[in-house]
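Lay summary. Proteins are chains of building blocks that fold into shapes, and those shapes determine what they do. In this project we predict the shape from the chain. Here is one chain we studied, written as its sequence of building blocks.
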Amino acid sequence: MPKAAIDSTVVKHQRTLYEKVWDAHVVSHEPGSPAILYIDLHLVHEVTSPQAFQGLRDRGIGVRRPDRTQATMDHSIPTRDQALPILDAIAAKQVEQLRINCREFGVPLADLGDQAQGIVHVIGPELGLTRPGITVVCGDSHTSTHGAFGALAFGIGTTEVEHVLATQCLLQNRSKTCEVRFSGLPAAGVTAKDLILALISKIGIGGGTGYVFEYTGEAIRALSMEGRMTVCNMSIEGGARAGMVAPDDATFEFLADKPRSPKGADWDAAVARWRDLPTDEGAVYDRVVHLDASRLEPMVTWGTNPGMGVAISQPVPEPNGDLGVRKALDYMNIQPGKPLLGQPVDVVFIGSCTNSRISDLREAARLLQGRKVSPGVRMLVVPGSEQVRAQAEAEGLADVFRQAGADWRAAGCSMCIAMNGDQLNAGQYCVSTSNRNFEGRQGKGGRTLLASPLTAAASAIQGAVADPRRFV
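And here is the predicted shape, written in a compact code that computers can read:
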């Protein structure tokens, strides 16, 4: 055999985390066409699924893999008192229709009153359904959250929801890869939310279009799994198809005791597979973005998309002829050229699939302990799941929030999408731990300032945008 041929047999192609997961799930791929990608986990909620289930009914077919499907109530449900009838007629219909669909098609449902119920991107990891190396889809753009475990996870449309229900596969084009490297360690008061807001303010809301982000570096490795979920959650806000973090011992420790995680010998075999997932040494990304986490400050948005963010001590930018910036400033009624510190706020919202986990609530409660929400400020704290709610109440966090003057709620999406009365009035300013600040997102005419739970809690105390480092 020629020497060149011998050499070619021992050269191993170095692959990124994304490439490994993608390659393992391609069922078929014809040149010039999208690949048929196998889906390991399909998460379903009440808003984007009714038409998909009806499509199955119309075609006379069932759900191919109910055992790889999990439904929950989260978007349309009230969070004040879930024992009362839902007043919003459309929301009530969506909730009841999901019950009907799950019964008819044999899909597991975490219904209201179920301890497993919660925001879809919170309960997947809690239950141990989200695991390294799998593919995850949901009719919700923030499915990228699950990439924190080394999964390839992304949102899909209602037509695609039907396709996955029917076939457990999806047509997809391969993405390019982008390493987002956070070197150094953040200072006290700078959190995972600040890391991702800093990235999006740097690259813009379209900066990741066509790419899957892989987050690397010392700052990412130092994050808890909850922090990694926060970072991956907002990958979509930077335009990326998905965000991923390679699994490590922190990942395995988080999953070890989860109800649906593998057990015994199956667990050992799974961990052995998962350890092979991280990007190979020498693998080449299509693009690399670098940020020094040690130089970052708490971040807050000033405009009407998540890329319009600024370090809390820095001035809001001048329009300089940019009509988009001018329009955003006019909508927000914010003056350029000075920091947002001291900007009065009317509402503070801690919740959403971005920042409603137990670690987020602990951070906020730590600042609020022994303090009061400023008079005139309405503060809502909405846990991401009933499990989080129960844990927060057992730890006394709920009491801290109540004693400070905050409104403690049941699990759901709540003010993130302005549902069931949890919304802003026109002209109100809200410091929110959610992921989007578009015009009207939290209520018609409402003005949203995205920030971390620490910054939100500090702002609730101050009655104005505040630097959490004063309180830490």
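What the prediction tells us: Residues 315 and 337 are 5 Å apart (CA to CA).
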